[in-house]
Q: What sequence folds into this?
């Protein structure tokens, strides 16, 4: 991700130089940059909290608990379906695709290979699962960022995303049930389950942090309070159920979890606030660039062209093209979200469409479409963790069912509005 940060720093310098040529003073440019950076702060806070959640859940045994109980549910003809459901639940609870890919995803891929299940299909199934929550979870950084940039209410967006995901999820369940029957697992590797039992006390208490994060938002509890409650409960579970020391737990919140078991650590180590620092820098720099864009109006002519084209072809296909181009150049969802917000916010305002429609279209496109760019980090990194290649994307049904269904729903809303 460091090359993305370097590119953003260079871009900020170039945009600032262009603003100087347009007649803006250095003081005014710095003020624009500060306004953009200020927009990033709520997202940065959420990112750091997500890092603490992922670290504390590792030490509490919550992540391993999900996988362990999922493995126990596996019957030979349900493996792929269980893998999808477990990764969906975990990604929704954690709000992160990479965190689930590097833990549950790696474990399910190991089980698939040991049980002679097609790894190409398995990787595609898991890709669907990990992006289910990355798109629609209230603790997803992309959901928080989208709500912030579109000036919409997070939980309202989450409810609309859940409603729009019903049909794509149902399609996934049907397809993966069929593929599970056609690709039964030969035998579940008992050594994996035994390693879990040795490392953690997997009592029902390990699910308390996840339960709080899933249930509290339903009662309109602010998301940061929900995350704080989940972190606190995970620390208590880690201390009293897993026997971890207070010092080690505090270290985990900051620097991530480190397992004493080297084999398990290869899968489970990570998390903590430090794991989110590069993401925080990307978000901050992207929003700073956006502040300069908006303050100088340097993209005004392009916005006008997009508005004119929207009348002919619609906003949804244009947003898909913008998302593909942005992710192809910058290899990152965050930049795509900023670009689509910058370009399409004034377009939606001119067309009389609501910001809620804009947020939903962005979530249906900017989180899923970049995964089809092979060199984008949201595609290449999970596939590398799985030891799979781009062929697996054929089976990532959720990632193309969401934009396809979203396109039809967006067209219907545009006609009604």
A:
């Amino acid at each position: 991700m460091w090359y993305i940060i370097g590119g953003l720093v260079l871009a900020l310098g170039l945009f600032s130089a262009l603003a100087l040529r347009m007649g803006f003073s250095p003081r005014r440019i710095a003020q624009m940059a500060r306004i953009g950076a200020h927009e990033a702060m709520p997202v940065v806070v959420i990112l750091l909290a997500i890092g603490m959640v992922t670290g504390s859940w590792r030490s509490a045994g919550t992540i391993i608990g999900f996988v362990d109980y999922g493995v126990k549910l596996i019957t030979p003809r349900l493996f792929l379906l269980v893998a999808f459901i477990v990764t969906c639940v975990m990604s929704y609870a954690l709000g992160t695709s990479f965190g689930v890919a590097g833990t549950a995803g790696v474990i399910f891929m190991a089980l698939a290979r040991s049980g002679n299940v097609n790894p190409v299909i398995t990787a595609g199934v898991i890709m669907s699962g990990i992006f289910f929550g990355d798109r629609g979870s209230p603790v997803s950084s992309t959901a928080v960022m989208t709500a912030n940039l579109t000036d919409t209410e997070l939980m309202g967006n989450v409810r609309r995303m859940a409603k729009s995901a019903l049909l794509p999820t149902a399609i996934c369940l049907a397809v993966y049930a069929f593929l599970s029957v056609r690709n039964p697992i030969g035998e579940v590797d008992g050594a994996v389950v035994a390693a879990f039992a040795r490392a953690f006390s997997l009592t029902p208490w390990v699910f308390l942090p996840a339960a709080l994060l899933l249930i509290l938002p339903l009662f309109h509890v602010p998301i940061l309070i929900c995350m704080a409650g989940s972190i606190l409960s995970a620390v208590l579970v880690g201390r009293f159920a897993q026997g971890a020391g207070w010092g080690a737990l505090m270290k985990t919140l900051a620097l991530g979890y480190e397992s004493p078991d080297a084999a398990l650590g290869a899968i489970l180590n990570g998390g903590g606030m430090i794991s989110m620092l590069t993401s925080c820098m990307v978000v901050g720099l992207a929003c700073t660039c956006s502040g300069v864009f908006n303050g100088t109006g340097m993209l005004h002519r392009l916005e006008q062209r997009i508005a004119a084209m929207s009348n002919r072809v619609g906003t949804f296909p244009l947003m898909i093209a913008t998302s593909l181009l942005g992710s192809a150049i910058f290899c990152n969802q965050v930049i795509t979200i900023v670009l689509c917000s910058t370009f399409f916010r004034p377009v939606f305002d001119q067309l009389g469409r609501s910001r809620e429609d804009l947020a939903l279209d962005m979530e249906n496109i900017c989180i899923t479409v970049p995964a089809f760019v092979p060199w984008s980090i949201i595609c290449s990194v999970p596939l590398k963790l799985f030891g799979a290649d781009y062929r697996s994307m054929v089976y990532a049904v959720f990632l193309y069912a969401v934009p396809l269904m979203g396109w039809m729903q967006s067209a219907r809303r545009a006609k009604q509005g």
Summary: The two ends are 40 Å apart (CA to CA). Residues 21 and 249 are 52 Å apart (CA to CA).
